[in-house]
Amino acid sequence: MSKMETTLQSIACGGTGGEMTAVDTMDGKIVRIRPFRIDTKYTLDELKDSMWEIDVDGEVFKPTIKTCPNWMALAYKNRVYSKNRVLKPLKRVDWEPGGDPAKINAANRGKSKFVEISWDEALDIMESELRRIIDTYGPYAVFCVGEDGHRESKDLHAGGGMHANLMDKLGGYTRETRTPDSVEGWYWGAKHVWGCGCNKGLGLAAPVETGYNPWNVIKDVAENSQMLLFDAGDWELTTNYASLFLSQLMDYFEVLGKEMVSVDPFCNYTNVCHNMKWIPVLPNTDAAFHFGVFHTLITEGLYDKDYIETHAIHFDKLVDYVMGKEDGEVKDPKWASERCGVPTWTIKAFARNVMEKATAHVHYSSGHIKTPYSHEPARTSAYLMAMQGLGKPGVQQLHLGSLVVAKEKIGRSTSAPFTMAIQCRMFYPSAQTIPRTLVAEALQKGKLEWWGSPSIVYVETSEQFQKFVYPTTEESFVTALGTPNAAMANSRGITLEELEAEYEKKKQNIPRFSKVHMLWSEKPCNMNCWDGGFNYQDAIRTDEVEFFV
Predict the structure, then answer these.
(1) What are phi and psi of 489, to 5 degrees?
(2) What domains sit in the chain, N to C, each tagged with a CATH number?
(3) Cis check: omega of the bond before 471, within 30 degrees of 0
(4) Tens digit of pLDDT for each residue in 492-519?
(5) Could you give the C-alpha distances from 41 to 11, 46, 213, 302, 519, in angstroms and in order?
(6) pTM of the entire structure?
């Protein structure tokens, strides 16, 4: 008689953050995927050191005994057994190895049918084409697509970057630089406002990349925030990293009686299923809305003057702009209302409420800063938080980097170090790169110039003023190396003389750079997520791209 077996698996579409599921199988087939009870193997007494809790006036928020996976995880059986799932390698019927334009038929990419081939044939093609392209053009002719970013979890190795890991051992590759696609406004705007402590992160306040501790943000908001300002975004439907944790947190905030306000063009699901005030604003006009708020705070003297005096510089420049001294146009609520669609009395009431009550800004990572020129509302959001006194009790920015409630006391799985090593490596500087959103243009024109890498994390704000080119030239390679200094040497644990010797060796051994002739993708979503859809389709139909896998 067949026996039911159960394995535990974290499933998340974001790559991390999937709550544990129990996968029941019989005869090697998935029967069901369900939430997992953490007391199945351990007693609550054994788990007590990891069972954090937040207690506000007798209302307790703590981990649930039964996990709360996102609904996509619970339905993953349908994906596993989907008739659309590709189980074996496929080769386009009118493509042949070798790079001959007459045989690769690049113009038919996306049009021609595919035929199933064996794994042996697929591996032979990969090996022979890699050898041919590297021998002909050099390793930088191989473009590794989808090295980083969003991916599924449930793996022992990293969900992306395996191809790049191999190419590193074969002499290098052209990197598809992860652009700050989730945090554009913070990255290009707010990073110039926060100060040097936040210049390596995503552009959000208190980035974990620079060693900030987010453990007490949720606790502080629960205990001290009176009002939660949702800068767009939909917490109830954002489950890719946090499963249903945000939904649980929303319920807790509601039980605590937090006043909730959403400034958003759309009355989203989170707005309608919670007791929330919705302020509709015209899309991409949040900066104008903020300036109207600033005018009220300045003219009525409501902002935190002591905080501005001790924690901010050049506030006088903002005042001059708002009051029209810079361009002759006063940015009062009437001016703002004409641009953002929010009534003047609402703008004034909003400003007074934000200062009267300890207000936390809530979003996941972006919300109102994912539009053209979104550096503007990101900067003005930072200005508003400064005027509120960011960091005072209850005055926080609650985002994806501040959702860790407590320090881990139980170590992660043994796969984590390797996964994290790959995850970190993909943000290192690379000798030749193409920004993800400019891939189509680079392939079509064969050359590219841009400013800022723009690697999403671990780069200084100053890098936004650095010029990059594709293909890399000897001059641009040497320029990108920069000038070795004592601080860089200290961070490496070597002497300045040793670092200078390393740099000199690199200058004497400049790699062989070339245009891209092979695309190796680990991400199916580039076409619809980053690269302009049809432009990307047109770009890959070039004879310059001899091999696309």
Answers:
(1) -65, -45
(2) 5-80 (2.20.25.340), 133-178+426-472+513-548 (3.40.50.740), 185-402 (3.40.228.10)
(3) yes
(4) 788 999 989 998 998 898 999 999 999 9
(5) 20, 10, 31, 55, 46
(6) 0.89
